[in-house]
Amino acid sequence: MASVRLVRHATLDLDFDGTRLLVDPMLGAPGDIDPIPNSPNQRPNPLVELPDLDRSVFDAVVVTHLHRDHLDDAARERLPADIPVICQPEDAEELRETFTDVRPVSGVEEFDGVTVSATPARHGTGDLAEQMGPVTGFLFDADETVYVAGDTVWYGPVADVLASHDPDLAVVNTGEAQFVEGDPITMTREGVAAFAGATDADVVAVHMEAINHCLCTRADLRDHLDAEGVENVAIPDDGATVSR
Question: Which residues form the Metallo-beta-lactamase domain (predicted)?
């Protein structure tokens, strides 16, 4: 049975019957990271404490992209240098400056009984998506399939992943992260509703209330989903686990 524990923000503990993957580790204390530039407020990040996390239990780390809210200095310093790191090919060279076992995935790879596939993602719209740089989602397939969409807006290729792979659990990064100018660069509440409507998976919504430019709260998202009659989305608190 697969389970997803939201640690904080986009940091996840994925457990596939004992194979443990730490996704997008941001391990620093509140205030360690400067406010995101050009944001509607100037609150230093993270905004909340890190729940208890035993770093020794993980078999590998997964990094969807190199923004500091997905891999911070604290994670680079505190994780073992020889832990396997699964990533997109564009990030492999930089990650090898910190970690010795970097495993870029452009298609399908195997890790400890889990099939890992790269999936498309788009971190915003228009020119802003280009400025944000490359980002990747990942599918993890063991007895059950978990789809981590990554920092992406709702668009056709994400819908295609849902249709083609029929995941059991699916994690979406929401919070409507945005700058002073431009549209949100992560999934909006409307995007989460559309995502949930396109799948029978148990959807887990994360990436809220921990970084200063994520403006959609858990309560905002729940209100919208309830109004739309969406019932297959869990919105866990930091430290909570969602299982099939």
Answer: 20-208
DSSP secondary structure string for all residues of 111-132: ETTEEEEEE---SSSHHHHHHH
List the domains of the chain with CATH numbers: 2-236 (3.60.15.10)
Task: Give the model confidence (pLDDT) of 51-65 as tens digits.
Answer: 999 999 999 999 999
Contacts of 133 (CB under 8 A, 6+ apart): 65, 66, 90, 123
Cβ(73)–Cβ(28) under 8 Å? Answer: yes
Please answer whether residues 240 and 3 qualify as being in contact, where contact means their C-beta atoms are separated by less than 8 angstroms.
no
* pLDDT tens track for 173-209: 999 999 999 999 999 999 999 999 999 999 999 999 9
Instruction: Please give the biggest Cα pair distance in the chain.
Output: 48
Q: Are strands 108-111 and 102-104 parallel, antiparallel or unpaired?
A: unpaired
Strand partners, 109: 116
